[in-house]
FMN reductase (Aminobacter aganoensis), 185 residues
Amino acid sequence: MSAKLVLGISGNISRPSKTRTFVEHIAGQVALRSNGVSHIFDIEDLGPSLGQARQLKELEPTAHNLVERIAAADVLVVGSPTYKGSYTGLFKHFFDLLDPAALRGKPVILTATGGGERHSLIVEHQLRPLFGFFEALTMPTAIYATNRDFADGILVSETIRARAQQAVAEACRAIGIPENVSLAA
């Protein structure tokens, strides 16, 4: 089994963040199971050119490198904090710059975080349609976590961990990783 590249994209613009922690946890589990590597970046890592860019060519070289990593990734784990019932504006702006065919067929695990349960459908009503436009292969299990699912910046909810493991298993099946490969919690 060849090593896989798992890329995590966190839509937050501040650090530390629960969203990044969540994306790191899930991407790390996919990488562990696939004998791969995971790399995580925040929208902030795209640099100041993102906000003014109208085309990919207007992004700084660092941002172009991240776009190339997205194209090379075997699996994406994307997440955004919830702002007014949706993903962050810069998160959406970044994906607006990508070619519509850039994510076609790429396995994607959808995640989001928020202060409470009232925004839990962000993954189904906001993120899934966005990645559906790109014809990405979104995993059936999407995961939303609230503030109470974390303690001291660490994911502690066993229910959310179980949902994450289910999404990890789905992504691993999508990239041909056998079912009998065990996952660490």
